[in-house]
């Protein structure tokens, strides 16, 4: 469930105003562990394809200009994995260490901040995040929006400080987030809504999170693919598959071309047109009419 609070503005993502300056601060250990408890495949998607959910959370459609993307991670942290799960296919069994995902986040434009464990069961991520947020809002170019990806209630005083400084705060957090945290933020995106919006997963009371059928036609992803091609102007065809995997987390072949059955059918469904050339040619948005 997405909840929007009145203070600090309404749903600024839909505003016609200039893009808001924003910073994203991710408590990786907290969010990854919560997703892993729900479904191992969901935590795998989150950790290995950060570009996909980053675009959903703070991409062009949200009208935000990102000033900072920071991922706070304990490189020595780990979770147990299933022998038949997606991490085992990466050779990460019986444990996967968080440092394994550093490269994916770096390639997605995040600054990865190492936060090793200082005492038993506790690292310094929350302290580093608070210091960085306070530095940002006191800087020469302060953000309008601060996105905090954490469910840790230790951040409550920071939410109060953000409100006092007239900064909007979006929380990405567990559905059972403490009421005081929820009421102190401008907007809350629960992890179940995040899984549905960013990855197309749905929660099932009997099965937990359920992946979308990769062979079913996916109009939402097709529309997003068209938007990405439109932003590129003209895209080399081999790059189309790479873009779909990085930004949407979907393989063209494995998804049967987003459920359309063929590359030609996908190009048609997305309103694109092919231009002959080397290496398979190019694609661009077809002119209407």
From TrEMBL:
Gene3D superfamilies: 5'-nuclease. GO terms for molecular function: RNA nuclease activity. InterPro entries: NYN. It comes from the Bacteria. This is NYN domain-containing protein. Residues 69-192 form the NYN domain.
């Amino acid at each position: 469930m997405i909840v929007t609070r009145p203070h600090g503005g309404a749903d600024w993502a839909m505003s016609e105003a200039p893009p808001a300056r924003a910073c994203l601060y991710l408590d990786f250990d907290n969010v990854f562990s919560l997703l892993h408890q729900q479904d191992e495949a969901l935590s795998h998607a989150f950790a290995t394809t950060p570009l996909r959910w980053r675009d959903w959370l703070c991409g062009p459609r949200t009208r935000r200009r990102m000033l900072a993307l920071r991922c706070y991670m304990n490189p020595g942290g780990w979770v147990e994995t299933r022998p038949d799960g997606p991490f085992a296919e990466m050779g990460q069994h019986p444990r996967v260490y968080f440092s394994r995902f550093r490269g994916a986040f770096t390639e997605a434009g995040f600054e990865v901040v190492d936060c090793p464990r200082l005492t038993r069961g506790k690292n310094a991520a929350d302290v580093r995040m608070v210091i960085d947020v306070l530095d940002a809002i006191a800087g020469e170019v302060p953000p309008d929006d601060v996105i905090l990806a954490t469910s840790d209630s230790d951040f409550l005083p920071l939410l109060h400080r953000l409100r006092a400084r007239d900064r909007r705060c979006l929380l990405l957090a567990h559905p059972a987030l403490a009421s005081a945290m929820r009421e102190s933020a401008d907007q809350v995106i629960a992890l179940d809504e995040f899984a549905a919006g960013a990855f197309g997963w749905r929660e099932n009371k009997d099965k937990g999170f359920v992946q979308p059928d990769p062979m079913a036609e996916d109009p939402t992803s097709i529309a997003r693919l068209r938007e990405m091609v439109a932003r590129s102007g003209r895209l080399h065809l081999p790059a189309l598959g790479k873009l779909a995997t990085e930004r949407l987390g979907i393989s063209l072949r494995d998804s049967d071309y987003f459920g359309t059955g063929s590359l030609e059918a996908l190009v048609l469904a997305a309103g694109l047109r092919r231009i002959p050339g080397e290496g398979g040619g190019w694609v661009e948005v077809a002119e209407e009419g």
